[in-house]
Each structure stands twice: as C-alpha cells, then as structure tokens.
Amino acid sequence: MSNLPSKIPRNLLSEVFNNNLRMVKAFEEVLTQINDAIPTSLDVINQDLITIQTNITAINASIASILSNITIINNDIATLQTNLSNLIASLGTMAYQDASNVAITGGSAIIDLLTVHNANFINTNVNLNNYAGANIATFTNSPIAGNPSKWIVINDNGTNRYLPLF
Predict the structure, then answer these.
(1) How many C-beta neighbours within 10 Å does residue 92 have?
(2) Whole-prediction pTM value?
(3) Which of 76, 80, 107 lies closest to 91, judged by CA?
C-alpha cells in the first residue's frame, strides 16, 4: 500500500457526490484499488531502475560485439578484394571466358589440350598475314605420295583458308 491517504472523509465525499451513497462507495473502492497498485516505497522503483540499467548495459555490450564483428567482416572484405585484385593481375593476358570462348588480349597462351567443337580448327577475327611467295606451289616434297588426306579449314576473319594434311 502506498503512502497516499487511503480514506477521504465520507462527509466530503457525500458533498461531492450529492449524498449519493452508491457513488461514494464506488469512489472509495476505486481509491483503494489505486492505493494498492502504487508501490509502498522507492525501493521497488529503485529495483526496477536497476533492472533496466542492467538490461541497457547488456544491450550496449551486444552492440559493441556486433560492431566488432562488423569491423572484422570489413577487414575480411578488404582482404578478399586485395586477393581478387592480385589474382586478376596474375592471370596476365586472359581477359574473360564465356561458355565457348576465351579472349586473349595480349601476349601469348600455351594450350596443353585443344578440343575443337566445330568444323573450323582455328577462327580469327583479323586477317592473317599473306606470306605467299612468287613460286608456284608444288607438293613434290610431301611426306607421302598422292594428295593430302585431309584439309584443315581456318576461318580467317570470315574467309576460309585451307591447309593440307598428309
């Protein structure tokens, strides 16, 4: 029960409620319920404040931990970005690869295994140099007698070139 007065003299209440006894009793009941609901001392309020402060301290610790983890994640992202940049730099001249092509933007590439997936052995997107000489081509020194057994087609920027295979 609180330190508030629990009783108001009935004669005052009778004057306020025009001698209506039912209203006086109802008001007294409401006043009793209010008094019962109010803490009896500041100790209860202080305990609630201590609990709230403890919860705030725990929340602050959680926030500090989350911020620390965000810093660690940011550092990891920076490391990944550096590693990716180093990897890209170490790839050298290879610019990109899609489902069927590898673009080489400069330098040279060593191909250990070549698999041809269409009728053309080599495709270029520029015209190849023409190293034709003044002589008439002959096959007098071919590795075997007779005509070539197969011709390789090279797509020279849209023009098919044929190489004999014996």
Answers:
(1) 13
(2) 0.31
(3) 107
